[in-house]
Amino acid sequence: MTQELIDLRTCILEGRFADALAIVDELEGMSRQAILRNIEAYLRILLIHLIKNQL
Hints:
- The protein is an all-alpha fold.
- Helices cover 87% and strands 0% of the residues.
- It has helices spanning 2-13, 17-29, 32-54.
């Protein structure tokens, strides 16, 4: 999901609004559960990186 958000931001900044709306449609199509799973996965990765930086 992170890549989609990066792409969305890029499209908006470049004025490619049709592409941005297509990405929004894709994100809307994802189930709430899938979004939560993706967030959880990214939080795990973030925590691993934070722990490694502490050592």
